[in-house]
Amino acid sequence: MSRQINIVRSSAVPLNIENVDTDQIIPARFLKATSREGFGKNLFRDWRFENDDDNRPKPGFRLNDPTYGGKILVAAKNFGCGSSREHAAWAIKDAGFDVVVSSFFADIFKNNSLNNFLLPVTVGEKFLQTVFNAIETDPKTELEVDLPSQTIRLVGPGYEHSEAEKFEISDYKKTCLLNGYDDIDYLLSVKDDIQRYETERAI
Amino acid sequence: MGKTLFDKIWEKHVVRTIDGGPSVLYIDKHFIHEVTSPQAFAGLDKRGIRVLRPEQVVATADHNVPTIDQHLPIREELSRLQVDRLKKNCSEHGIELYGLGHPYQGIVHVIGPELGITQPGMTIVCGDSHTSTHGAFGNIAFGIGTSEVEMVLATQCLMQTRPKLMRINIDGTLNAGVVSKDIVLYILAKITASGATGYAVEFAGSAIRALSMEARMTICNMSIEMGARCGMIAPDETTIEYMKGRKFAPTGDAWIEKLKYWKELYSDKDVVFDKEIEIRAEEIEPMITYGTNPGMGVGVTGHVPNLSEIEEKEKPSFEKSLAYMGLQPGVNIRGKKVDYVFIGSCTNSRIEDLRMVASFVKGKHKANDVEVWVVPGSKQVEKQAIEEGIDKVFEAAGFMLRQPGCSACLGMNEDKIPAGKYCISTSNRNFEGRQGPNARTFLASPLTAALAAITGKVGDVREYYKNRELLIAGQEN
Ligand code: SF4
């Protein structure tokens, strides 16, 4: 798993369905593992296969369509709602994605993604539709996600003058992703403060 | 300027704040369970560190446990391994485990409150999104992912950004047959499954004040279904009465000390919320969902929306959802045949829920072609139900009383609803496949579920309360 994220340029897989919950991303019956690895093969399991059968992939589903590929997953509004299972972020990362784009992410999913160096990029509804249209028209269309400048844009022939969309991320998280640090590294570094808080707290 | 309930608690728990970034938030209580914790312990091992405050962590096994023959070894190998791993991790790190066979075992969000571990004014987390349940006591309680479980185990803290604040006021008196589950399904239908994303939600108003603690928990439980970071209700006399004498509630001087703190926990009069919503309790009817997210609900006398009532952009998702449910736009939900009834989950598996169902079905029998599972939220709930003779009522009605666990709420153990079948469920999620691959879920209150168990169909429970004086559990009169 790559822990650092800087500039990601890649084609993308479109998933234009709203309110995708984490039960769809990785169904509960696959949560029995005790390690973080190997969830990618069951990503969107029940949308990908007929009757849970590996030999019967559903042809209409974008992740089964070899025309689409890349390190960026483009999703519709309210992506990752429902269960807090981090297995959802693990599955997406394990399937080879470094970025998920949506107009709206559920809170816990967003945190889980950031903690796994999977960058959630929130864009405006209009930009999202432009991206969906562009990919549907030409699956080879590429996107460039630039974390240092916090921008995302369509790139390649025909998009030389396309406008970049800004996205938000806290300076703290940005530093973490650029350098491959995680929250635990930070929290362990302020352990003295935590212990002081414990002795001084009023309640 | 005054402060909100949320801020009063938040400010007391901030260890430090990064300029323009998140805060280090101290966590008072951390609940863990078998499914979302093994990778966190593995992470600690990898870093060579130990749990910082094991006495502030409480563990149980609930998601992945069988709900029959709990005295026998777990048959399914992966489930058994996961439960065994929890045992091993807890014993190695000195964490109290209420595992299978323990008299306190149960669904994590049921046992915390019933044991008095959950208290007002705390910060509480668990690797489970329905941690919002605990907010009914007036605390900040929210679900976290496994990396965050690891952080809390390692440092008893989390990196958190203060959310925006929303208040939902529900004033007035509920109609007979309408209970707290209906309130929350009604709010969801109104504001949608993403209506509170990014917010901490405080539920207030006279209709909330009139609810019992258990009924309040049902509402806070489902605040995550609106996308809320957490749900909360200011503590009051009802809260304090509930806390008294609980196993881990403070006693003596500590009780007096805590009481002082708890009594300060309310939103001051002059505070301004980022968003405020007003609802009249009288408007609310018994609710039911027809779709595949909890925001897709209507009153039981309503109908599935017509295509013309849906925004153009949302049509594909709406149609996908109805195709999954095997329903047509515009049809009435009432009269719809059900195959299974599931009464359980951290939303509605507490003793009041079981009493409510029992009071309705007493002397009646389930419809022939319906299978009814009642899964108590904890060993203590199960014991209480047996002591009160509720088990006998269920037995006579042809209901199956199982043993505590999450069960068909998430279909992780064997308790799955078969493909294509309709289940009316008191749980909190109707997502595709949630109760088993291709299972179809109608979310409803325990009363509406009980009625469906008897008639085999979705009906309007209010008709049974006409001209009759019936005590409705969960609603203090
Ligand atoms: S009962 Fe359902 S919602 Fe509650 S903790 Fe268990 S799986 Fe989660």
What is the helix tally of chain B? 15
Strand share of the residues of chain A? 15-25%
Strand arrangement within the widest β-sheet of chain B reads 5-4-3-6-7
Largest sheet of chain B: 5 strands, parallel
Task: Briefly note the structural class of the backbone of chain B.
Answer: alpha/beta
* CATH fold descriptor of the largest domain in chain B: Aconitase, domain 3
**Which sequence of SSEs, written as H and E, runs from N to C of chain A?**
EHHEHEHEHEEEHHH
Which radius of gyration of chain B do the C-alpha atoms yield?
A: 21 Å
Number of structural domains of chain B: 2
Structural class of chain A: alpha/beta
Instruction: Report helical residue fraction of chain B.
Output: 25-40%
Query: Which protein chains make the most extensive interface, counting residues with beta carbons within 8 Å of the other chain's beta carbons?
Result: A-B, 57 and 67 residues
Strand content of chain B: 15-25%
Q: Name the strands of the widest sheet of chain A in spatial order.
A: 4-3-2-1-5-6-7
- Biggest sheet descriptor of chain A: 7 strands, mixed
Distance N terminus to C terminus of chain B?
A: 36 Å
**What characteristic shape of chain B results from the CA principal axes?**
globular
Task: State the total count of DSSP E strands of chain A.
Answer: 7
pLDDT under 50 segments of chain A (min length 5)?
Answer: none
Number of helical elements of chain A? 8
